[in-house]
Amino acid sequence: MRTIRRDGWTAADYDSEQILHQLGHRDAAARVTRARRARPLRRAWRTLRAQLHRPAATETPTTPSAAGTDWVAARAAAVAVNRGDTGEADRIVQATADPRTTAFAAFRFIDVH
Length: 113
Fold this sequence. Notes:
Elements: H1 11-22, H2 28-36, H3 40-51, H4 71-82, H5 86-94, H6 99-106
Helix pairs in contact: 1-2, 4-5, 4-6
């Protein structure tokens, strides 16, 4: 039986671990720990969706802040993410002149289901 330690587990985490253990999961503690991990990409996606109007995937915005964005690379990176190849998407974005804005531009073209 696992006790609550100083690693930040709450009573709810402990309950979740106990339920998973009772259901027969041998790695119940690992699953709860994985569920508690920070997800910066998910947080960035939620922030972008809340702050930006998402234009149609066929549009290429022409705002001044988008001047350094490589839209062709952004679309290619989004295609790589949509097929599950995040390593390729990272290589595409890092090869541009402004990787940060290109990566954020790629969010416009990622399929969200």
